[in-house]
Amino acid sequence: MQHNLTLPIDHATARTFRVGDVLFLSGTLFTARDQAHALMLDLHASGESLPFDPSQMAMFHCGPVVSKHADGWKVVAAGPTTSIRMESMEDQFLRLFRPPIIIGKGGMGDRTSAALQAVGSVYTQYTGGAGALAAQRIESINRVEWLDSLGMTEAVWLLQARQFGPLLVTMDAAGGNLYKDLDRIIAENVKAAIARIETA
Amino acid sequence: MTSMTIQEALRTALKQAATSLPQDVVAALRAARARETSTMAATQLDAILENVAIAQSGGIPLCQDTGIQTFFVKAGFDSPFLKELTGWITQAVTEATGEIPLRPNTVDPLTGENPGDNTGRFMPSIHWDLVDGDDVVITLLPKGGGSENMSALKMLSPSVGLKGIKKVVVEHIASCRGWPCPPTIIGIGIGGGADTALTLGKKAVLRKIGSQNPIPEAATLEKELFDLVNSIGVGAMGVGGDTTCLAVHVEVAHRHPASLPLGILVQCWADRRARVHLHADGSAEVLD
Questions:
Q1: Which domain range does residue B130 map to?
Q2: How far apart are CA B142 and CA B268, in angstroms?
Q3: Least Cα separation, residue A118 to chain B (angstroms)
Q4: Owning domain of residue A30
Q5: Which burial class, exposed, middle or buried, applies to B35 when counting CB atoms under 10 A from its CB (0-12, 13-18, 19+)?
Q6: C-alpha–C-alpha distance, residues B188 and B29, integer Å
Q7: pTM, full prediction
Q8: Binning pLDDT at 50, 70 and 90, where does residue B2 land?
Q9: CATH number of the domain within which B242 lies
Q10: Which of B89, B34, B48 has the alpha carbon at shortest distance from B274?
Q11: Is the ipTM above a cut-off of 0.90?
């Protein structure tokens, strides 16, 4: 099922999405890679608040290429990065900051899956490498945080998106997990392939 | 083909590689889409093909990971430019980083410092082969981090033989799932020492899709591995589907009797390459 959504959305809505649904998002996305996750968790631990509200946005695992122009920053290319690198921090991040939608690639682990179910959020897969398509759907950069300390790739960019997608829901708030389903199928296929190799 | 200076040709090749895919790769992606039976994998392949069209028409990078700029130089012994080539290549990378732009991707592994222009110690990465003649052919491969992270060296026991090699490749590619951005091009280097196996694997990635190793046993292995890898169902971007790899290329070196090194080099679907041909008179062209 396809959903065209305008952010912010509430968690009750996010809870209705199921593995296999395709989302197109309009509204604000914030980018966050490894270092941004660590920095925001550190800020929270030291009692400081974030300069934006992640619960009103979708989180995008992305280190974009941006260029600076007279009238501000522009996105050149912005595809997803490999999400599993953030696994050690994501459950805490979800529970604290509550973004209803994560955009990444490759899927995440059991701890993230549990947090998605607890918070009512979904993990979506954006096509890896589709950086030009993504840039076409980003209208502007609203602001950037921690650019000086984190650099272009790791900084948190707040992006104004229009019809951003296709985002394939691969982990939902009901515990649905495409990657787990595929674990079983692929394991069987590998077994069959090995049997073919043995008997050739 | 337009004749240009080597500096112009290198900058043109860097832009071409970052923003467009070679025809053989586009054709292979289209064919994969046409035969895909999984609707989820089809959404990924459609997005990939739309992305390729947008990048090419807009002259913008295909992927935000514009890679480590990796050059393979076949340099004629009699070329008058051997002394200058490293400097020219490095200069072109610095300029292209600002112009295209490319993401500044080279990081000091000890301090984390990023020089900001894709250069640094041993960067850009340049492999040299000296050949007869006075021409130089430079092949550029901007290699993304996500797929490079899935590359592997396996030091096998020679007793496992070809069957053992096939099993290890199938198990490794299955374990990579969607992380290297499939459908991938898989370069397999067999033999040599550890370094030779990995270098051969990377050179295997450079070959055009549809090409075959001229050694019959290697060509057979390529075909068998291609069918085996595409039977495991990882699919485009790891969402499950019919095409996990677009090609398997095998390169082979003789080995030590006690060693069977196996290099598995994984290239994402954004198989960006370009070639520069530099003549002895100083004129140059970009080939593909």
A1: 6-16+62-144+272-286
A2: 11
A3: 24
A4: 2-199
A5: exposed
A6: 21
A7: 0.92
A8: confident
A9: 3.30.1330
A10: B89
A11: yes
The residues near B94 (Cβ < 8 Å, ≥ 6 apart) are B117, B118, B119
Tens-place pLDDT, residues B89-107: 999 999 999 999 999 999 9
Chain A residues touching B58 at Cβ < 8 A? 132, 136
Q: Sheet with B184-192: list strands edge to edge.
A: B152-156, B260-267, B184-192, B245-255
Is the same domain home to B125 and B10? yes
Residues of B with Cβ-Cβ distance to A78 under 8 angstroms: 64
Q: Tens of pLDDT along B208-232?
A: 999 999 999 999 999 999 999 999 9
Q: What's the pLDDT at B1?
A: 64
Residues of A classed as catalytic: 37
For residue A62, give the chain B residue with the closest CA: B64
Does some domain include residue B236?
yes
Nearest to B64 among A79, A168, A178 (CB): A79
Number of domains comprising chain B: 2
Nearest to B229 by CA among A186, A180, A184: A186
